[in-house]
């Protein structure tokens, strides 16, 4: 029979191992995230990968007759933004369950993320 200290250590080790497995699984899933968006008229399809980078653009051969260069550019940007937003949402859904309690995802990965989110609060020596 293990003493309570050994049992506590084993339980902590099991918790750490489960969390490490979960992080590894999530990391593997992050690498396979992608999103393909197609314009309503079917003229443009854009695929964005896990880092928000464009992986592919497909244009219907008729797109050049239907859209001016500026319209085509705007339509491409719309589909790229939609696909990038979808990838960001997929990433958030995967990562949020791994975030420490009380630390919002947006503080670490959002547009306004700062180094402060990673650092402990300052300790007041007078307190």
Automatic annotation (TrEMBL):
Gene3D superfamilies linked = Nucleoid-associated protein YbaB-like domain
Q: Which domain of life is it from?
A: Bacteria
What Pfam families does UniProt report for this protein, alphabetically?
A: YbaB_DNA_bd
The record's listing under SUPFAM superfamilies reads: YbaB-like (SSF82607)
Under InterPro entries, the record lists: YbaB-like_sf (IPR036894), YbaB/EbfC (IPR004401)
Q: What is this protein called?
A: YbaB/EbfC family nucleoid-associated protein
Organism lineage reads as: Bacteria, Bacillati, Actinomycetota, Actinomycetes, Streptosporangiales
């Amino acid at each position: 029979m293990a003493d309570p200290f050994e049992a506590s250590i084993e339980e902590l080790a099991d918790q750490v191992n489960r969390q490490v497995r979960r992080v590894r699984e999530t990391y593997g899933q992050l690498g396979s995230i992608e999103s393909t968006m197609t314009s309503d008229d079917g003229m443009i399809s854009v695929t964005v990968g896990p880092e928000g980078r464009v992986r592919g653009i497909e244009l219907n051969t008729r797109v050049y007759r239907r859209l001016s260069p500026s319209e085509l550019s705007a339509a491409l940007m719309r589909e790229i933004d939609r696909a990038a937003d979808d990838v960001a949402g997929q990433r958030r859904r995967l990562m949020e369950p791994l975030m420490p309690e009380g630390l919002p995802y947006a503080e670490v990965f959002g547009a306004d993320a700062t180094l402060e989110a990673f650092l402990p609060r300052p300790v007041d020596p007078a307190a």
